[in-house]
Amino acid sequence: METRILMEVEEMISKLREHQGRPFDVKQLIKACVSNVIMNMLFGHRFDHSDPTFQQLLHNLDELAAIFLRYLRYILRSGFFHTSETNLLDN
CA-CA distance, 33 to 9, in Å (whole number)? Predict the structure, then answer.
């Protein structure tokens, strides 16, 4: 497991160096690296960050997460769960 994580950390460092100190959105890079670690652990396969299939997968995961959070907010605000923690999802 440690080897798989270190391999992806090396890839991340390489990608960071490519930007040579110029500003960029690091969120995409972190998302790709974390996703690759999880995929490598679960399926024994990692994707190149520029792979169109991998990019589509990341896009689909973003959409799925947005839909899930939308429904979770709806459920929590509907009063179905009587909790004071509903304000956690107000962002």
Answer: 8
Amino acid at 64: L
**pLDDT given for residue 60 in this prediction:** 96
What's the rounded Cα separation, in Å, for the pair 54 and 38? 13
At 84 the pLDDT is: 56
Both tokens assigned to 71: 């429904």
The mean pLDDT values, 10 residues at a time, for the chain of 91 residues are 89 91 89 93 91 95 94 83 57 55
How far, in Å, CA of 55 to CA of 35, rounded? 11
Under a CB-based contact definition with an 8 Å cutoff, are residues 35 and 61 in contact? yes
CA 12 vs CA 9, 37, 63, 70: distances in Å:
5, 11, 24, 31
The domain spans of the chain are 2-89
